[in-house]
């Protein structure tokens, strides 16, 4: 039987950070390994209150959320609700990934339906690294003109 790993890396300015909310030990280990390979500093959490506190204390670059984390559905998941309710400046910089058995990897309509940036099927979680890297790159390409326009206008972003 696999144990949950609690991980709480120390963050330095300029680090890329990730919050992993996965409550299946095997899947959590794979997700953490994939994010580590992409040089993310990682926090994990199993308890709702702990995760919500971490989200208030730090704006993570990536949040990976299991479809049924904490025995909830995506539509009523408090972690997803907190990520969606984050200030616009923060939300535009976060990349939220939902992992679950009912998702089709890279299905943009499913991602839109659940207000996340990427959905990944459990069977594809071993390939999270290239899928996540491509998704984050696409998001940065999408927001670069916006960020440049905001910077030119002197609006804080």
Can you describe this structure?
This is Response regulator receiver protein. It comes from Chthoniobacter flavus Ellin428. Strand 4 (95-100), helix 5 and strand 5 form a beta-alpha-beta unit. By secondary structure, the chain is of the alpha/beta class. It contains 6 helices and 5 strands. The chain starts with 16 loop residues before the first strand and ends with a helix. It has helices spanning 25-37, 48-57, 78-84, 88-91, 108-113, 128-153, and strands spanning 17-21, 41-44, 62-66, 95-100, 118-121. Helix content is 42%, strand content 15%. The chain has a single domain, classed as Rossmann fold (3-Layer(aba) Sandwich). The protein has a 5-stranded parallel beta sheet, with helices on both faces.
Give me a quick take on this structure.
This protein has 157 residues and is α/β, with parallel strands linked by helices.
Structure characteristics:
single chain; 157 residues; alpha/beta; Rossmann fold; five-stranded parallel beta sheet; 6 helices; 15% strand; Response regulator receiver protein
Helices and strands, with pairings:
Elements: E1 17-21, H1 25-37, E2 41-44, H2 48-57, E3 62-66, H3 78-84, H4 88-91, E4 95-100, H5 108-113, E5 118-121, H6 128-153
Parallel strand pairs: 1-2, 1-3, 3-4, 4-5
Helix pairs in contact: 2-3
Organism: Chthoniobacter flavus Ellin428
Protein name: Response regulator receiver protein
The first-level CATH class name = Alpha Beta
State the shape.
globular
Cα separation of the termini: 46 Å
Ranges where pLDDT stays below 50 over 5 or more residues in a row are none
Just name the CATH architecture: 3-Layer(aba) Sandwich
In percent, how helical is the residue content? 40-55%
Largest sheet: 5 strands, parallel
Protein name: Response regulator receiver protein
């Amino acid at each position: 039987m696999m144990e949950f790993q609690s991980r709480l890396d120390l963050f330095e300015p300029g680090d890329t950070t990730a919050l992993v909310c996965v409550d299946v030990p095997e899947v959590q280990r794979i997700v953490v390994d994939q994010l580590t390979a992409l040089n993310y500093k990682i926090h994990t959490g199993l308890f709702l209150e702990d995760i919500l506190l971490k989200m208030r204390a730090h704006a993570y670059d990536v949040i990976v959320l299991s479809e049924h984390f904490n025995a909830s559905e995506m539509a009523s998941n408090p972690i997803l609700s907190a990520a969606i309710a984050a200030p616009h400046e923060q939300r535009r910089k976060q990349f939220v990934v939902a992992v679950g058995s009912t998702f089709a990897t890279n299905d943009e309509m499913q991602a839109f339906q659940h207000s996340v940036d990427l959905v990944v099927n459990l069977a594809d979680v071993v390939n999270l690294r290239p899928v996540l890297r491509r998704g984050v790159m696409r998001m940065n390409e999408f927001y670069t003109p916006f960020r440049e326009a905001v910077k030119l206008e002197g609006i804080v972003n």
